[in-house]
């Protein structure tokens, strides 16, 4: 019983950065900006959060620096895609490559630990809430802990799902943003600035990727290591496509990916019929599912019509 409870709790923890990155991609792509750079923004944010937390000894300062770093990369992507009308996929790939190299180079230069950051003190991490009173409830306590003993960033991630669904469907800003992703020329004809709306979406995506990266390095882990996001941005993108660019289905897809990652953590060293399952096989399950989802649903999913297309104003 305890194993199943720990597995469910681990599923929630592992799905948090995927949810944040997936919602970030949802905002960006609903506005017509393809965001392949989710992985890079998460990675540079994880590095910034761990570095700032190690230096200043504060998880909140680390979160602030993570958001700033992710925003800087998001604005670079926005400038290339919106102002320069560049290829959005190429820009996103460049961001991923730049973040992967820059984090290691700066980490090695600043801390001299081969690209790692020093281990964070407790005040430099977002630790899960603790409820000792639940120890006296053997029947209910473990089940309640599945949902209660997480860091504050986990609750922020899950709260963003209904908030995003409501904002995109019920608010003027959300409706305009969706219209920009579907028909930017009609929005421009109505006198609404297309570029400004797209920049707002890119900024929202940058903030959420910053929170996701900070969670990875200051909550899931206690330091930054090279490529520690491990393809989480691409999983989030696959979940977004599988969910057909909708918030609630995206939550379910991210929980599925988180469940597979949790199984990988728990099943290391497991054996079937005396044959020990290789660790590499278990760890590759989330990535296999990513390929399967993209191969099976890429043609069935319908992205916003203006997604990936540069907006050229009629003359």
Helix content: 55-70%
The overall strand count is 2
- The dominant shape is globular
How far the N terminus sits from the C terminus, by CA atoms, comes to: 67 Å
- Structure classification: mainly alpha
Short overview:
Helices cover 69% and strands 1% of the residues. It is mainly α and 315 residues long.
Helix/strand layout:
Layout: H1 2-30, H2 38-56, H3 59-83, H4 88-111, H5 141-148, H6 152-170, H7 172-182, H8 184-189, H9 194-220, H10 232-242, H11 247-266, E1 271-272, E2 275-276, H12 279-283, H13 285-297
Antiparallel strand pairs: 1-2
Care to describe what's here?
This protein is mostly helical. 69% of the residues lie in helices and 1% in strands. The chain has 13 helices and two strands; from the N terminus they run H-H-H-H-H-H-H-H-H-H-H-E-E-H-H. The chain has a two-stranded antiparallel ribbon. Helix 2 (38-56) packs across helix 10. The radius of gyration is 20 Å and the shape is globular. The termini are far apart. The model has no long low-confidence stretch (mean pLDDT 88).
